[in-house]
Amino acid sequence: MTREDNRMLNTLRVIITGVAGSLGQATAARARELGARVVGVDIAEADGVPNVDEYHRVDLLDRGALRDCFARLGTIDALCNIAGGFAMGDTAYDPESAQWSEMFKMNVETVRNATMAAVPLLLRRPRGAIVNVGANAALKGIATMSAYCCSKAAVMRLTESLSGELRGRGINVNAVLPSVIDTPANRAAMPDADWSQWVTTRQLADVICFLASPGASGVHGALIPVVGLS
Q1: What is the mean pLDDT of residues 14-19?
Q2: Strand partners, 144
Q3: Average pLDDT for residues 96-120, to the nearest whole number?
Q4: Is residue 128 within 8 Å of 217, Cβ to Cβ?
Q5: Cα dist. 208→92, 202, 213 in Å?
Q6: Mean pLDDT over all residues of the chain?
Q7: Which helix (H) or strand (E) holds 25?
Q8: Nearest CA among 126, 153, 85 for reference residue 217
Q9: CA gyration radius for the chain?
Q10: What is the Cα–Cα distance from 216 to 224, expressed in whole angstroms?
Q11: DSSP of 100-134, one letter per residue?
Q12: How does residue 47 score in pLDDT terms, banded at 50, 70 and 90?
């Protein structure tokens, strides 16, 4: 990597939602290494959220509060929609399951709300980027994972739709599709798995930051699998 490549986000202002989580932190750290000024957004308490230049505690499901928060920022160059969640175990036909509502709120509504708040700011700049997180697993349906798969599939179709709407206005919209991510939570949940096969948060962060950078100006509506060795 050349010195120029290593500063590919230099001077850019990047919003990262879900910044307090494992992938959010990895993305924030990498973005700052690449020269970005990172604005972190999450519902976590402000104390103990490193790797950001400024932090805003906002409920991503509160569309009005999120819009007000973003409007106060003035200008931004990229939005990385990292916030989301995972759930499995319930069948698609279970009338008592709350997973459908939970997954669509966490994975779809957060992306839509942040995007609605960010696009007016991105349009003020010569060029902007939105990077979403889909899921490789959502390329097909999986038993007892319908809520998760359907919500992430919605993110993927939303990414493509937004790209069609915004590509002609200078905004690139793309998504990464990870497999199982190597995080402390996933290691605890699957202690017998071969963790070396999982994609690392740093590997994902590298791709996310590239898609947020001017180097990806020709990439529109891409759904990029980032799956490690799995």
Answers
A1: 98
A2: none
A3: 98
A4: no
A5: 31, 10, 9
A6: 95
A7: helix 22-33
A8: 126
A9: 17
A10: 13
A11: HHHHHIIIIIHHHHHHHHHHHHHTTSS-EEEEEE-
A12: confident
What tokens appear for 78 in the block? 């990229």
Q: For residues 40 and 42, what is the distance between their CA atoms, to the nearest angstrom?
A: 7
Structure tokens at 140: 């097909």
What is the pLDDT, as a whole number, of residue 2? Answer: 45
DSSP string of 200-212, one letter each residue: EHHHHHHHHHHHH
If residue 80 lies in a helix (H) or strand (E), which one and from where to where? strand 78-81
Residue 159's nearest CA partner among 181, 182, 183, 138 is: 138
pTM for the predicted model, two decimal places: 0.95
* Amino acid (1-letter code) at residue 18: G
Specify the fold of 5-226. Rossmann fold (3.40.50)
Sorted by sequence, the CB contacts under 8 Å of residue 80 that are 6+ apart come out as 14, 15, 16, 17, 27, 31, 130, 131, 208, 212
- Name residue, tokens 């932090």: 55
Helix (H) or strand (E) holding 40: strand 37-42
Beta carbons within 10 angstroms of residue 137's beta carbon = 20
pLDDT at 220 over 50: yes
